[in-house]
Amino acid sequence: MCQTFVHVSVLESEVTTKSESFSGKQLESEWPLVPLNSLIDPTRGISYGVVQPGHSSTDGIHMVRVNNLTNGRIDPTGALRIARDIEAQYGRTRLKGGEVLLSLVGTLGLTAAVPKAMIGWNVARAIGVIPVNEEVGAKWIDFCLRSPQLQERMSARATTTVQATLNLKDVRELPIPLPPKAVREEIAHILGTLDDKIELNRQMNETLDEIARTLFTSWFVTFDPVRAKADGRQPEGMDAETAALFPDRFVDSELGPIPEGWEVGTLGVIAALSRTTVKPNQHLDEIFDHYSLPSFDQGQIPVREPGSRINSNKTLVVPNSVLISKLNPHIPRVWLPQLRNDARSICSTEF
Description:
Blueprint: H1 2-28, E1 33-35, E2 47-48, E3 61-64, E4 69-70, E5 73-74, E6 80-82, H2 84-87, E7 100-103, E8 111-113, E9 122-123, E10 127-130, H3 138-145, H4 148-157, H5 168-172, E11 175-177, H6 181-220, H7 224-230, H8 240-243, E12 250-251, E13 258-259, H9 267-270, E14 277-278, E15 287-291, H10 293-297, E16 303-306, E17 314-316, E18 323-324, E19 334-335, E20 344-347
Parallel strand pairs: 3-9, 15-20
Antiparallel strand pairs: 1-11, 2-10, 3-6, 4-5, 7-8, 7-10, 12-13, 14-17, 15-16, 17-20, 18-19
């Protein structure tokens, strides 16, 4: 299982590096730059969605929220359904397929192209609907918006009075490179193939993570190996050498019965909160591995970028650490960093 984890991690790193390299080149070329607003359906325009969706309605219309945008795709899991009379007031953002969605509030810059399967859905206020001209194609706009240059521009333009918010005016003015159609289609095909590979690797990781969680629960929460040995049985799924590491009886503790020889303590006994910060923009030419909330939400892959592109303070990620998000704790963002020797790793201070 460990070999498979490593294999998937290497593949993701390779695919991400290629994708970032391609995205960087596309905006630094000699292709003309045009405002995003000139590439959309003029009869609809760029709009944000439902402001006050109300309570979920069992027979209502599905609505995409920011938490449904993940890995450049729309995950319908847990999608809210809003009352039809409320949704009817937002016909402008009712999805027809082929639009690009862009998160505008909180976690900025998450994107996804809308598949035909979601025709008739709507979106929340925190999401902008970009009805792309068919000649340009949603995939091209999607890839451009995900490029480091436009992600940085959106972050720089955001207002932060309460939480980060991107205005539609700034979205409309985003500069989009426009090479010939044949070039756009070729690049979109290459990047789409890489996206598919990343998604496949992500699904593999999810399966392996689920196996690991199940095994962890069995060994260290329900203590199945200890129970088996206490009953005189051989623990399932492990060799004799591993089984010998577990005791064969329980003792009382403040948490209830625990395996003999084990102790009860707090996280602070075995871990410390790291507070070392760094200002990347004081190291303009240094390349950092940046663990950010958007990076977590878009596939748990850190972005490699120079200090010149990172304006805010960051926390230095030290060896043997685990990142846990302090923002919206109901969303389980827990990340095990894979540090590399050729770059310092940093993370958002929200971790």
